[in-house]
Predict the structure.
Amino acid sequence: MKVTIQPTVLKGEIFAAASKSAMQRACAAALLHHGHTNIINPGKSNDDIAALSIIKNLGAFIQQNADGSISIESLHYPAEDAKNKEINCGESGLSIRMFVPIAALNSAPIQVTGSGSLLTRPMDFFDEILPKLSVQIQSNAGRLPLHLQGPLLPGDITIDGSLSSQFLTGLLMAFAKAATKQVTITVINLKSKPYIDLTLQIMKLFGYEVKNENYERFIIQPQPRFDKDVTYTVEGDWSGAAFLLVAGAIAGDIKVKGLDIQSAQADKAILNALILAKAAMKISDNEIELHSKSLEAFEFDATDCPDLFPPLVALAVYCQGTTVIKGVSRLAHKESNRALTLQQEFAKMGVTILLEDDVMKIEGGGKVHGAALHSRHDHRIAMAGAIAALRAEGFTTIDEADAINKSYPDFYEHIKHLGASVSINQ
């Protein structure tokens, strides 16, 4: 799919899409829950669909309700024999890192597969950790597919949290379900701590209590069975909304609704970046209002929120001066090597991006011209290019623009709703 975007002044109101970070965690918790779960405002991205497929294949019963909510029943997990011997995580990094330990709770052998960029992401973590938890594992030299033979038996372990907090999320959920005695997960150099806050928040709703000792030790006690029905409303997605907020700051007068200002999502930090850039922004409990104005270069540490790099780059190109963003090391194992991809794609628009160790420097304030971009099959690269195109000189095209389906399938329709000139060629 190719998308063409003309420079546009935006105006209007929009509701943020559902958070895939929250949706996928809720699916995992619903699978582990001995009872009924009702998920309100469920996400519909490819990653969300992958999570629903995984829990269905692991034995959960899923019903789509007339009001748009989803009902999930999972009374006997882990099962004596998994319903399907294979789970496919699509291209979802969170799904594979979270569901592998959960799938390993089963005694039945299970194969874990994926597609696209997920096939090249390192899975050495599981090769190292799972055998310590009585799980047999065979990988393809640290890559997919994985072959698991459980059941996983929780025990005191130490893990490296520098690559992703998502591995810890999966272990916390699996340990909480299966612990028969107190166990402790010790974590060295944990990244993206706010996402662990989100994990623990959702686990608590489903009856699991985990003691967090300064993000260095997580103590899990055996839990009595929690049989109560759970209703969970998926909050708005700060990761996707970050692009809308940046669009408002550089190209119009918009209001974004449906975001929880008290959210544990890491990408809520986009508000701090907008404040540093001196964006015209008004924040309330129910909406965030933005108006375009002259913006200033800023310094920002994105180590704990690396998914913000693409919208931050789109913001920085329209700021006067050189913006400095820390945390480049977190970008290597995304859907693309995002640091290099951002540098190369934005160079086509006349933007200079320098990479120096763990720092990215974006030279803003110059002419930004329309260009022929490519998503590199990375949803956030496609969205960053589209937002930058709103103020560029001339039109911009984005090839493989349907990469957005991974996280935000309504993205182009949402910016069109706000007045963007977007034409789509299938």
Notes: DSSP finds twelve helices and 25 strands in the chain.
